[in-house]
Amino acid sequence: MQDFTKFSLKEHSITTLKKQGVTQPTPIQQEVIPLLLEDKDVIAQAQTGSGKTFSFLLPMLEKVNPEENVIQALIVAPTRELAIQLTAELKQLSNQNNMLAVYGGQDVQQQLKKMKQKINIVVGTPGRLLDHIRRGTLDLSHVSMLVLDEADQMLHIGFLNEVEAIIQQTPSTRQTALFSATMASEVNKLAYKHMRHPHKVHIQSTTTTVEEIEQYVVETTDRQKQDALRKVLKDNRPFLAIIFCRTKRRVSRLYGDLKAQGYLVDELHGDLSQKKREKVMDAFREAKVQLLIATDVAARGLDVEGVTHVYNYDIPQDVESYIHRIGRTGRAGEDGVAVTFVAAKDMQMLTMIERGINKKLPRTRL
């Protein structure tokens, strides 16, 4: 399979993938996309960094009919950050605005207001989804495609009962896809209880980039994080570096602060036009910009020679994002360094990342 055109996907999806520099499907995408397009149930076990996200988002966008004013697809994710990220990627791949993220810590009234608009795809965390189901504000009776993403993380956090309750609100005729880095017995049990003759896809990990990159953690607080970043930049003296932030707003704020302090810096996020994005990338490739501050979605498929350092200013919210981010450095046999800044509240996420990459990261405190 040479490129995404072989899957008969919507033109908009293929164009967007090309713009992001994604032209060839990964092994998991080659196996899972055709199965999901044929309405098969799928259990996919793949190590993080395998490209699993597009393997279910692309078929989902093919199947959803934007003319119908009902929720047709549901993605359940373990964390609100992952739910936000998945929704952002859906919006980038689609030319529709018919998707909604529902998660805790968000204004319920705002969510209720959005739910009155035409929504075809919902991405949410188990607790908040269940909250809406109990309020009677979320109708899942027309869902034809259900995706359980990061199923092992979801069960590890203790969401089994909530996930079961959500599944019971969807029609038994729906298509189900479950993605997990590991196949613990609870994940298997959940899969076989709720799926019809699922096709198992197991992709062996081929990621060696993680091994070859020098990685360490800087323990700090949210208040001191920017000072810690500047100190590390002074010590590391990167030639070219990418600094990852969780949201567009945080990208812009950090960009403004570092620019005011005289750094050669620019920003990359989903609000930029294609022309502006290309201008930023050209300046970065030519080393006219030394520090590129970006969101995960904006950096998808970004491949620049000579990136010496990656800084996780905000900790990634899943292992796949971690591997994807740090893989921007250490390309083509070159050395690379990845530094992750963590506050006390990030420790659980850090443990999850370390478990996913099977490596304890050295800590330093400034």
From TrEMBL:
Designated name of the protein: RNA helicase
All residue ranges annotated as the Helicase C-terminal domain in the record: 212-366
GO MF entry, a single one: RNA helicase activity
Pfam families associated with the record: DEAD, Helicase_C
Keyword presence, Ligase: no
Positions of the Helicase ATP-binding domain: 33-201
Organism: Pontibacillus litoralis JSM 072002
Biological processes annotated in GO: response to cold
Example of a GO cellular component annotation carried by this entry: ribosome
PANTHER family per the UniProt record, alphabetical: ATP-DEPENDENT RNA HELICASE DEAD, DEAD-BOX ATP-DEPENDENT RNA HELICASE 47, MITOCHONDRIAL
Keyword Transport: no
Assigned keywords, A-Z: ATP-binding, Helicase, Hydrolase, Nucleotide-binding
Coiled-coil features, chain-numbered ranges: none
